Each structure stands twice: as C-alpha cells, then as structure tokens.
Amino acid sequence: MHPRERRTTRRHFLFGSAGAVAALSGAETLLQAADALAGRLGGPIGPGGIPLARRGFPVTLPLYSDNDPVDSGRTTENGPLNVFNWSDYVNPAVVKKFEKAYNTKVKITTFENEEEALAKLTSGSTSFDVWFATVEYLSRTVAGKLIQPLNHSYLPNLKNVWPQLQSPFYDVHSRYSVPYTVYTTGIAWRKDKVKTPPTAFKNGFDAFWHAQKFAGKVALLDDQREAIGMALQHRGVHNVNTENAKLVQAAANDLKQLTKTVNVKTNTTQYTDVPTGATWLGQAWSGDMAGATYYMPKNVPVSVIGYWRPEKSAVVGSDMVTILRTAKNPVLAHHFLNFLLDNAHGLENFSWLGYMPPLKTINPNKVIAQGYIPKNLGSTIVRESDFENAVSLLPLTTQGQATWQNAWSAFKAG
Predict the structure, then answer these.
(1) Predicted local confidence at residue 43, as pLDDT
(2) Which of 3.90.190.20, 3.40.50.410, 2.40.160.40, 3.40.190.10 would CATH assign to domain 183-315+393-412?
(3) Are 103 and 289 in contact (CB under 8 A)?
C-alpha cells in the first residue's frame, strides 16, 4: 500500500457552527480577548479567535500561563509514543528506526479528516502525544489549548529546514509546530490521451474548460478550497483566500459549467486514476503524482504521466507536526519530531511518501538523478523558491467559511 491509499482527502474539512468553534477554543472569554487583540493588530479574526496569518501579516501564536512547554533536561520517557496521523503518512521503516534508537514502541492511530481528528482530541476519551496537523487548524487548536508550546532545546534538527519554515508566517518562531511536508496543487494528465495539455495554454487551468473531447475523464479534487481556488486562478484571481462572495460564487459557477460540458468528477484518487487511465486530466497534489510509478498498469510506462503547476502563484501547502497538551511522553515526542527532521530520515521518508520534506539538503536535481522521482515528474518537486513565490490556502473568517461552503454546496448539488 502506498501513502495515498485512503478514502478521503487529508485536507478535507467541514466548517462547524459558531458554538462548536467556541467550544474548541476553550471559553467565550478567551475568544473575546483574542478578538480585542486582533482588532488592535488590524488583522481579520479566525474561528479560534486569533488573527489570521497571511504572508504579509505573520502571526506569533500566543502563549498561555496554564500551557507551558516541557522543561529542558528532562529524562526521556519509556513510551509507548502515541501518534495521531493521517493514514500512511509516515514511512514505517523510519518509525522502526526511531523505535530502535529510543528503545520504545510507536503506536499510530489514524484519522480520515480533521473534523474527525478534532472531535477525538476534544472528547477527552483518547490520549495522544503527537498530532500531524495543517495550517487551517493550527491557530484554533492553539486557542483551544489542545497542543503545547515546543521546547526548541530538544529540536536541534530544526536548523535543517528551509529558513523561511524555521519561523513560518503562520507560526512565527515555530512556537507550536515543526514543518513536515510541502506540496503543490496542479494538474496531472495522460500524455498519450490528452493532445492539448495544460502546458499549451497561457493559463494552464484553462485546460479544464477545453476538455469536451474526453468528457467523463476529467476530475477535480473533492476539496472546496482546492477546487474553487483553482477556478479563481482560472479567472486570474490569485487571492485564493478571498472572502468576496461575488468572486467565490463566480468561480463556483465556472465549476458548474464543467459539470455540464465535461461531466467533471470530484475525488481524491488521481494518484491511481491518472496512471490507470480512469482520469485523463485531473487536479492533483504533487506528492500524489510523485508516486505514480506504483500505480502504472503493466506495460504502460510512467513517462505517459505529466504534472503541471504554475511557475508563479502556484498553490503551495505545508503540513506540520505538533505535540498535544495532554501528552504523556512529551520529551519522547520532541525526539520524534526531531528524528523526522534529520536529513537522512527525511530523505528516506520522502522516498516512500512522495510528499517532500522542506530540508535544505534535498537537491532537486539529485533527487531525479538518483531515481527518487521520475524525470518526467520532476515538476512535482517543491523548491524553496516555489514556496517564496507561492500562494497558500489559509484559514478564513467564520463569514468567509460560510461563503465558500455555500458556493461549494451549490456546485455539488449540480
């Protein structure tokens, strides 16, 4: 089984009610205080009551007197280390090496989407040490005091990471998270089936609206932010976090047009559907397509697969790893995070996962030359410069969430 063998997307999230948000963030007074703080800073307010991070508006996540990091110099616990992760999102061989290095056991419990994960974390019925998170939910889990601040004395390998992700704009000083993987969102296609590929258009996303000849073989990611964000970029709107209802609805209407003209599908299985020919043109994540080799039918070369994303204003995402506030093994958890940031372990993880860690030592040219990534899929590699020029799907205000959700629901309803 390869990393993307799951039924739902790791980035699919549903927006809860205001009451659910308040419950997650701990208390109404906490939200009120955060609202006042954000108002003074001039930034929009996120569902967790913390200002929304943007590339031009970096956010230093708050510290709380009743949620301290673990002390330095403590003895490492015996474990077992309880990890809460997306299914198949870490190389089992790397986990085994960690177990051997620290004479412990690692127990991995999986979740299918972040709403499911947060429901378990807030229920109090389960106890985990490490949680693999995304930018969309980071600030609200900080506000809810679900995760604890990190003690960097246990994380010397953070220096191996790209400088801009050692202190990312969404978590300045990496107070609560360390980066895990980076990826782009683009288009995968079968070169032997699609005669006018995305690369033939000035705006590659236009390819979806010129695919009438192979209707029924076109797919979008079943993710409202990704699909509507793509339609916005098709329109030349690169602010993929816009809350302008007219722009969002117009983009959703463009997706409706695809339903009529090419019978567009929505799923998260391009990693297997494009290689097998079930889809000829599909919106896809770079990490999924980096593993296309695993899914090619017999006697069909991987060279028939193409992957395109914009040179500028590509959607680039980054996932992260955090430590739960209730962790029973906080020192061992820090060692696990540090282990994943080791250069050798990061490369080994990448070779199995397909999703790339943002480590300075990973040379894109060598990755291709050494066969980690097929040459024709070199565009799936994320370079540090890609992240610098990128746009990212980031948290929205409660009103913005409703705007996107309503537009997406209308598209899905046909």
Answers:
(1) 65
(2) 3.40.190.10
(3) no
